Batch of 4 targets.
Target 1
Amino acid sequence: MSETTVPLASRLRSLTLRVEPRLKDPPRWYPLAVTVGAIVFALFLGGILIALSGGDPLRSYIHIARASLGSLGVFSDTLVKATPLIMAGLACSVAFRMKLWNIGAEGQFIMGAFGASAVVLTPIIPAETPSWIFIPAMILAGILGGALWGFIPGFLKARLNVNEIISSLMLNYIAVAWINFWIFAVWTEGGFQMSPAFPKNAWLPRLTDLAAEIPILSGLTTHLGLILGILAAIVAWFILYRSRWGYEIRLIGDNPQAARYAGLNITRNTVLVMMLSGALAGLGGMSEVTGVVHRLQTSPLAAGYGFTGIIVAWLAKLNPYLVVPVSIFFGALILAGREIQPSGIPKMIQGIILVSLIASDFLIRYRVHIVRRGQEA
Amino acid sequence: MRTKILWQTVAVLLIATMVLSACGPEKVGNFEIPAVVKGKFNVAMVLIGPHDDGGWSQAHYEGLEYVAQNVEETHVAYIENVPEGADSEQIFRALSRKGFDLILGTSYGYMDPMETVANEFPDIMYIHLTGIKSNGKNFGNLMGAMENMKYLAGMIAGARAKLDGNPKLGYMATFPIPEEIRLGNAIALGMRKTCPECTMDVRWINTWHDPIIEKDAAASLFDAGAQVVFTGADTPAVADVAQEKGKWGVTYDWYGSCRVERCLTAPYWNWGPVYAKIAEAVKAGTYTPGWDYFDADTGALGLYGFMEGQELTTGMKDLPPEVIQEVRDLMAKTLKGEWTRFDVFSGPINDNQGNVVVPEGEKLAQVDLDAFPEFGLGCTYCMKWWAEGITAELPE
């Protein structure tokens, strides 16, 4: 019996997948290719979803591109949406690099916004103070608020070995309740659950503020927070990849046993990295409240930036520089997705991208062979 | 061979670009992307909930469809699920950049964002519901005298609770703003008319649209002993809970919201005629934005069970005929414009602290209906009191 007479089905059945861990590092291009492949795959799945619900996938995607990048105005809106994601993404990246699973960027973001708002609303400094004093004070307060909220789960983890996933997640809800208390009871405006608007000198400068001199900037709401975000990315990169502390963080993340034998202080680093992570998220909250919302209010601040930051960090492979373009990608997706009516599907696509990416990690750590049964040995 | 493929690709891309850059509304299968149609009058609407929420947003969406059908050469579009605050500002600006002629924002919290964007685009008309601001140029306010319908619904609910032998009502209010207090007071005044011994409890839910919170609040009011519960929020959740509990719910906003047997009635909006009138005027360049507050004689207000072609609901059928007749008489008067919002709030009115709010022979003015004293709008009586019979205190 010659081989060609064997039916196709049984030939396929005789094939089997063999999975083995990679012993060598894959080539440099490989992780990038897998990531891009995962996004394409996710968009393809999303396309099927769009088609199933009666839409036209290709035109939907083209629309997303046009509605978020198609003109100066919408690109500015995309950058505004990307700004909080950059900071939240950086916050998650530094913590995840040490394998500290900080799920609390959302709460740290909110506490950063609270810290910045307290400067204006308490008021810690009077309303007529010039911007150049206001803004640094609010940046400081935002960073402190976030760092404090990161310190709590960091300390609990370091001293009492409390699972940081649970404690940081729960602290998110406490942060929401905390700002709710302040805007319900103390800083309410006219019975609404929001504080009065900040005075103009407590707003981060925006492009549109220059519209009187440069008319083309009119209506462009991109604000100083974007610059802060990019600076934060540079600082985070230098900390992680060019400093002794960053080396410790990466070593602890990759091999905590070895790090311990090498005499690294894991307890101290756990607390410090959680604080750094919280500080970055807090900076994001400060930037959003003073750059966009201009008042303390729950729904626009607790809008899930801290959670999307987890996706951003993962998609950027925890590389601070990559966090910036990935945030812009997500900003575009959020912004343009909102225009597609009825709403809903665009949010699902974000979820699919995350799942695909996490699943694709498997291909980086393992090799998959197709082998014919009987040839395995 | 290579070149051929290259040229084919270029050609396909070119055609795609041309198709995509063509003007016109983008229909992506069942999905719609708001865009203007050149040469038409373009109207966009921003909604806080889904366009088919079975309540507030759906009523507006149907009003928008009415505009599309009844105002000539009009193109309409909508964006749903837009949160109040900063996010909505981006949406209003995006719609303005696209070049819509009239933009309707249908939630209180869109007020400040709409004002900001209106100042950037002086050629576009912005109409906001249900706030308290206008710039007198291209940003106006719109609301109607729902208090008349709530009063009549209060009469029905009072009679129902009395008949059931449990003289307690409940009101799930959204935010402590003049609008919600005004409507709650209208319910209580109507309730006392048919059931002087009735009382009404209040729960603040701090949301306009959240089916879960709405359900929980309704259940909490029923569990606390209420026989009939009113909602001030967007969805018909209150009637679904009433159905489970064997009590009565009064839904709001949309005529189709009163579907279950235990739905007693629904005060509702019929935005179509009002929107069409505004759209015509804006199109003709004759609309002056300001504080546009309409009464029931516009045909924009209704009470389910009492309008043309509607039958009494199950919960109304065994009520005393004189109550039903009284409601019918008042309804006839309000539709003719003879019984307005100022008649609902005419003295004597007492608050629930034992004080006289409005003395005999006095009436509240428009600014009283819409303002707290601290707004600085110069109201005499204002809307910061609970009417007699309400067993709750105003939040600090």
Target 2
Amino acid sequence: MEQPVVHVGGLTKVFKVPEREAGLRAAAKSLVRRRTRDVRAVESISFDVARGEVVGFLGPNGAGKTTTLKMLSGLLYPSGGEARVLGYVPSKRERDFLRQITLVMGNRNQLQWDLPALDSFELNRAIYRVPHEQFRSTRDELVELLEVGDLVRKPVRNLSLGERMKVEIVGALLHLPQVLFLDEPTIGLDVTMQKRIRAFVGEYNRKHGATVLLTSHYMADVEALCRRVIVIHHGRILFDGQLSALGNEFAAYKTIGVVLENGAAPLDAYGELIHRDGDRATLRVPKAETSRVAARLLSEQQVLDLTIEEPPIEDVIELVFAQPQ
Amino acid sequence: MTVEAAPLPQAGRLRSFVDFYATTMRTAVATQFQYRAANYFYMLGMVAEPVIYLVVWSAIARSNGGNVNGITAEGFAAYYIVWTLVRNMNIVFGAPFWEWRIREGQFSGQLLRPMHPIHFDIAYFAGWKFVVIILWIPIAVGLSLVFHPALSPSALEIAVFLVAIWGAYLLRTAVQETIGMLNFWTTRGAAVFDLYMASELLLSGRLVPLKLMPEWVQTLANFLPFKWTFGFPIESLVGNMSTQSLLLGLAAQALWIVGSFVVFRFAFRFAVRHYSAVGG
């Protein structure tokens, strides 16, 4: 059996942060005695990711997603536990490890601000020791896939946020990394641009068999790319499994859509009526009662059509995030 | 546990290092060319400081019967015109900029590269110097026409000077980057930088040629890094130093460079462990 590309076991990160009360007296006090507090950003998390998998890392702000990605890419030293990526310990930041990964952070610019992106690409070629021929073909392919033909000749500072993100991604992938850590790569982008970047990541994953760990607040990103999701909250993993199973685990209800012959029939007795438009209605009912309510509707009403659905993924995620600490 | 790693592009280590340095230097030159007017304003600002010293010391020399401690007005002119080149060679990635680099998330980007960030700084600022030197030449010619420097270096002095200005660059880089590491523990690393700058001003030959300082200051300066970044490179060209002094100076500079980079290496290793990547 093939070893996982990413292996995380009991990984923990604790930050020591200074704190003090407001006011002059507290400021003077802190001169003599500094107070610090431990913030447990990531608390003993464990998971494996296989080669070629695209895994969505979900959680509200401050859940520990980015901290985890930073530990896996070697930016942060873990406070405990172990992490291995491609067999390497990320915190050792060995050259051969760094040549095979990339971390793309939305809204973060790593290209030379004053120069056209082509110059930064050339610099990355030298940094990652990419042979000239391979560099040219990869660059041209990525430029074409992301449709940034003319943009790479403009100084980076003159590009829009979306354009910059696209050339940023080209720069981050020129060395054809095997593992991609994408931290909100579509943040702040318009819907079309989000879609393009999403499609590109999927294409790169398929073509190069790359492993992708993605964080995003846009569920469309996750739904389009990830079959598996890991939900992290307060530094702990709440769920690790198929995206489709997330609803079963956390949503306590399902929705029943009905089309009635008699559009005016009262439906309050069957569940929470969340939408009604003429003869069409949507009901929210407790998961355990779904079959019974559906059977009642079919026997008591003149139903033309009936569908039972899992709640939208956004609603499920909202429920997950609302979990108490 | 290991997994089969993807094949990596292999190239000679030295060749790829040269390629990296050359590419980064080209990038620095291209960046500088983006701001032509700013470059001239920068150079004018850089020249203001030595011209003030030069005017003051020339006036003192003339009112003192032609010289101060054996340095004539023409000698001061030579000292401070060479100073302008040495000062430009001494521009490095300054310690206070580490705070910016961390806060803006630039450092995270650099840590992700399979190349130590110090190489980027050395290569980038070395490339930048080529633009500055081109801009310096007309300024040096203009200052020479006005102040008539007394300068007739030997071939050995020129050779030592050319090595010493790059040595000064490397030494100042190592010292400033080491001080920059303080930013990983405190947001007030600038205070130490200010102390460094004040010491450098007095003990390097930047403000006053060391020859004019008391004997004990000159002795102290020999045992500190500052002189090897300013006074020594200038004196190697204008100071009529003996061959032995020139070679000993280069040796002292080399020792300081090696020692400073060793300290930096340790400081960097601990700093990275302490890094919290708050800026991204």
Target 3
Amino acid sequence: MSVSHDVSPLIRPRSKILTHFGRELNWGDFVFRRTTALLAGLLVAALAAMAAAMLHGSAESLSKFGLGFVTSQVWDPVRDVYGALPFIYGTIASSLLALCFAVPISLGVAIFLSELAPAWLRGPVGFLVELLAAVPSVVYGLWGIFALAPWLRTTVEPFLGRTLGFLPLFQGQQRGFGMLAGGIILAIMITPTISSVSREVLRAVPSALREGALGLGATPWEAVRVAVLPYARSGLVGATILGLGRALGETMAITMVIGNRSEISASLFAPSYTMASVIANEFSEATGSLYLSALAEVGLLLFVVTVLLNIVARLLVWRVSSLPGGGSL
Amino acid sequence: MPKSYARRKVTDIVVRSACVSAALIALVPLVSVLYYVTSRGIGGINLEFFSELPKPVGESGGGMANALVGTLKLVFLACVFGIPPGVLAGVYLAEFGQSRFGKWVRFSADVMSGVPSITVGIFVYSLVVLQTKHFSAFAGGVALGVLMLPTVTRTTEELLKLVPESLREAALGLGLPKWRTTLRVMLRTAAPGIATGVMLAVARVAGETAPLLFTAFSNPFWSSGLNEPTASLPVNIYNYAVSPYEEWHRQAWAAALVLLLLVLLLNVCARLLVQSRAGAR
Amino acid sequence: MFARRSLLVGLLLTVVACKGNQPAPAPAASDATSIVKKDEAVSLTGAGATFPYPLYSKWISEYNKLNPDVKINYQSIGSGGGIRQITASTVDFGATDAPMKEDEAKQAPGKLLHIPATIGAVVVAYNLPEVSGTLKLTPEVLVDIYAGKIRKWNDPKLKADNADAKLPAKDISVVYRTDGSGTTAVFTDYLAKVSPEWKEKVGVGKVVNWPTGLGAKGNEGVTGQLKTTPYTIGYIERAYASQNKLPMAELKNKSGKFVAPSIEAMSAAADAVEVPDQLFVSLSNADGEAVYPITSYSYLLVYEDAKDAVKGQALAKYVWWGLHDGQKFSKDLDYAPIPAKVLVKVEARLKELRSGDKKLLSGA
């Protein structure tokens, strides 16, 4: 993408110092690249510092439990025995459930707002969806306790139990609070992130692409599918990853509706417990070095799970959006 | 085998209706939450809310004026710590990010967006509060800024990458150096989209409670400057919402409503700031 | 456009700046040997238990009316948080429901005193639409419900003590606290005292491995579940049950009487137990006919030797006030006042507070 400058008489010759230190043609570019690199490095440094702090904090727990921490299901602060498997399951399951709900809806909203909605509707609806992001976690949690969970308990879960009860997903006691409530609340919380960023990404696609497809006889949806989505693929993946990150790290709202039982169950009606929740719930009151160390290790595991899910999500979305006939410009 | 036109038309209509339904489904919880917050909070919004300090249970007329100012301070600090580094890091990723270092930066941003806010709070606590031996608004701002970084960085990167190359080539062809091209042409074009990303980040941190508990703490009185613990709307909402008292609950809902309106206001300001610079689209 | 931008920025800065013009707090450094005048401006911070937060807010507000220059900032970040902050000296005093353990106390840079400041009760609340009177529970039944052995409301053991209640044939939904909490510590302390099996299998703590039930976050979370879901049972602080009009069960105390969690019953529990020199003790399952069995103290944590004399004296005076004049606010907020004979011991300990060589409370 760089234009060849070597022979143009319009460009000043480079100073000797610049020639030594880099490929830039002037001091402005030199400083620009180094400064932005420094700030980008800040991100890496911050993450490394956090990871190092967690590693240091979890040293005691790592040495005492080793791999058993990841495979054991017993979390007993009274006896100082800790195992994080139910939390790992809870985090992964609730985040994936949230993505299952949120990604189709968010993409639908983004396509609606960028392609289909009349101009007068775009502003207000877009605004309203972003407003979802402004609601504090606590408020979502309280709404979940008083509005969502009772609705699930009286309407949705009995319906699912009756119609799809042969699946282990929909069996068991219906209390409203549980994995399903957790997944739904997370989905609601990450929808504004995914849809807003996706909408901006779709808006940034040059209209020439869209118009070209339409001019060749595509229906509006086909124009989007063939011309716009492949071009926007990277951005859409980025939006989903941001949403996933938010889902993994959410604590307050989800702990108020997910039932907080460290058990692994196949049913969506059963209560569960996430890693972020257990840290938030128990950190303030935890005393005792092994207890605190176990909580730090849970934080470390959350890092690991985030990394793994990131990789998986990226591969999945990349695959799915590699549609036939598509390709970047 | 080419599909018949009728079939393609039907698919088109089906998918378009699905998108409309998606938008409606997304709005249902919003309406429900807004209704919930407004119906419970509107009663608590009065002049005292914006001018009085909190009062203990049993005394009427308390307000959250210090929390409102505190939130503004914290959001301001968060923007100072989060936006410039975030945008510039995003610029780096978009311009020079194909190297191995760039991959590490992108990876860090993605992983950091998944770190729970309480972990960031604890991290900033050991970094700032333990060193200064007291809680402060400054520490709170740092924690919120760190929370904002990944969203701002990645949004900036993705939107910068989408600006057509033709703009860049035109600017370079006119003799602008690379740094000027990026900052004044590409960034300016992508600005409205980046503003959306920034506002998303701001909206999220404006409502965060957990990190503030260990950094900015809270304060029943006014806090002066940036070096003292400060009250904030989300912490007050949390404290009041988990109390047993109905009148504190009312205040919590009122505070939630005010917080929403505040974020809305910030959103509008951001759009106004950015709209005037970028081209129309 | 430039004007618009600068207007917005200017607005923001004005807001920040004008609130920055409050008078600065008291000078931090002061002559360590002199005790300062009464009206010097002081700022104190404290952190700890959530349970006494409403009472301490009232104290702070009332004390500030009497002494406008003393500003106290107490935040409820949890007992564990309070212990950690006071140990790290980022706050001037801590508050905890469960007393500090030996190894925690060793980590503090100085000697920390436990000052019992108020008394609270953990009540067993429930949601039974068909039952109009108060449920009566024996310790054995309570343990069995939480252990998962009694599963239905119309179990014969429940019927035995509640003959005239229309107990339904529904499953009992048990609710516990998922977050670490002094309430859980007090509740499990009681269960362990009345059931050796519970003590062995589950134990006592701020977080335990519950055999059955659903975890809710905070007293508010448990209350929310109790209010919205029928056939649930849970344990919460008294204030939450009374403010939300949830029925509270009467518990059979050690002397065999069914007692409701009234303020008098809480005071009776405090009267019945002798407070040792270390000033902390468990009040659960005390002897006495009028005693409510799940009662506990809540403590303030104060350094015996204050590094900053100005702050140390201000704190000592505040705590003294709280233990005397502050107690009259207890009843309205669902707490019980400290009994007189305990107060005598606490006063003696408070008089030992010092900064260096100087005593902080001379003839207060």
Target 4
Amino acid sequence: MILKCLKPIILWVVSIFFLVLVDYAFRSANGLSSALYLNELLWFGIPLLIGALCALWLFAILKPFTLKKILIGFLLIVGATVFYLGFILFYITGTGVDSF
Amino acid sequence: MTIYIGARDLNGMPVGTHQFLLITTDKVIPVKIDGKLITPKVLGKGIKGYVIGAQNRNRRLQVEFFERSDFIAVKEYFGGIEKSFFQSDFDAELKEVSFSNSELLSQVRLFQLINAFTINQSLDPIKYPSAGFGFNSNSWAGSMIKHSGGVVDTDFSGLDIFHDRLIPITYFLPICPSASRPVLNK
């Protein structure tokens, strides 16, 4: 079951990598150093949409629910959110889009 | 003329706060920073000023006037830009800084510090820390206020990490120090 649960997480991770890669490629091609290339609707909307789909897929895999399965699902979602925030933070601050 | 410390949301991040300085002025007097003339810009109805912040540029903490996001954030605050309901804004927050000196003297002092910091960055650059965890733009804004004799609470709402970490005064002085400057963000 754990392996099955990893599929939506892998999809999530790959999507975030791809989103960042696309933005970085367009920024580099257009010489845009201190701003995102992607429109904010896409930048925030795509992760939100894919995240919701991955969460639905994850909970479909975990059905029928038990306390243990809900806990696993919750921990995976927390982990995926932490990954998203950390990865985006490194991209934003590390490549000069914006700085703390 | 009023001197503010400001904070805004990070561009492209759901969390995180970036701090900067704002000096409003009635007069369009250019100031010379590192040989370049900087002129105040219109921020809103009848409000002009200088927006100054430190940024990660080429992995160095560098001062930038009217940085794109800082400038938009201030314009949003003063009504110089209208945003639609579906567009995210920078949620800028400004705090007026109080000084014991006159505001003109304080303004001059701030520009002196900025000028010296900018020049010193070419000699003793402060490396921008990984993911901002170290002496960062929040530290820079707070240090500027502190070293210019201003008093304000630099803790803003949101995740403004390292806002209370003071960059040593030696980075803001127009001198070649006898002892080398401490290396920050090693």
